[in-house]
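Consider the following assembly input.
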Amino acid sequence: MPIGLLKHAVRGGRRDLPPPGDLKPSYDVVIVGGGGHGLATAYHLAKHWGVRNVCVLDRGYLGGGNTARNTAVIRSNYITPESVRFYKEGVELFTRFSNDLGFNIMYSQRGQLTLAHSDASLRTFRLRAEVNKHLGVRSEMVDRKQIREIVPCLHMDDDVRYPILGGLWHRDGGTARHDAVAWAYAARAAEMGVELHQRTEVTGIRRDKGKAVGVETTRGTIACGQVVQAVAGMSSQLAAMAGFRLPIRSFPLQAMVTQPLKPFLDPLVSSAALHAYVSQTARGELVIGGGSDPYELYSTRSSLELKESLIAHTLEMFPFLAEVKMLRQWAGLTDMTPDYSPVMGESPLQNYWLDAGWGTWGFKATPVSGKYMAETVATGRVPDILKPFRLDRFATYDLANEMGATAASH
Amino acid sequence: MKVMTCPLNGPRNVSEFSCFGEVTDMPEPATVDDTAWAEHVWYANNTAGVVREWWCHVPTSYWFIAERNTVTDEILRTYPASEVYSQRVEFAPKDGTA
């Protein structure tokens, strides 16, 4: 055994995060939610805006929520120019992530193939491809022959309920190790003085004259300059503590992985009509995700009928997987908005910023939302790139409709 | 599979039903302001706990109301909408301009 490794073993290994101390009586910024989005915001506040008197609170543990429950799809092939611009920068930040933060997130850009099983899907794909190309995102329409070349193992016969007619090939699509994203931001933010307090549940938001002035927690009350809420499926619950409602409904989304197999599937493959998307991890496991549950629920329980339909649809694409065993399965809590776009920026409460409504599209936006939420908090101004996603858009019916660009209809 | 009791058809698999969201009162279209109407259209209580919702038994197109716990995934009670709405609800403006 090399001496270095032995020394490492004796020393007890590297510690990414300092042990948590007591909560201070006051912080400049309190971020509620210790997932990717909250930690990315903390990192960018400390790194680029010199705001270091920051604490991140989580009622569970680091990356125990949707950061580690999503299916780790990274893409920018949306429909509206506003979204494409935003998610494109998200993809660019992911490509540099491991170098920027000195933390390997195993980012792998292998392309994403979305399948069309109807003329309506083909029309949407053409629109997406043109909007994407116009904004510098690599998306193109592919026919059945090209699909065979991209994914030779895909079942392309016509004797199925929904034969494949064509596809949208998104070369910029990729994947990364999702929990590493949260760890990386947490570790680098902690080095700059940001405090992460796990198992610290927020029980109330203190308000004074229309301003957020403090946060009540299970470990005491903290005074604060500003608050950021980044709590995914619990967005409505936290907003209620701050005294307002949101255009959000919470649904579980169920996913699973199979036992590891030899590498056979390079791109990420998704089908909205079949409500399923499949990718193979670096470990060889197949990650399979589907649509949301059919009704609202604050529970991460699984149900047999959703798993059965997910498996049936996956087998329609890859019939040879029939004998493969399922290894793990779980659910995450998604906060769905009416237009399938997030809600970021100002809230009805002053000094209280929203990073919510991330439904089933939050992971890919982790770096870019952190970057611009930090700018929002530090300058008190919402940057132009976030304005299409303001809460106010619902009052003016100025929606950013991305329902047609989800990987599976929810 | 989870079973839901339809007031018309009795206990059926939950996959036969569709949920159409919380029972709320529609503001009067002729007098409501734009902000309150937008709130009615888009916003939700998204309650963690017992909610009262519109459900439809799809094969028979029968609409009814269910009380459901959104934390425990329990269906507490289902009943005909007539228990809540004893009078006809007019959706068109009263002066008939629309």
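Chain B has one domain: 3-33+40-82. Ask yourself how this observation constrains the way the partners meet.
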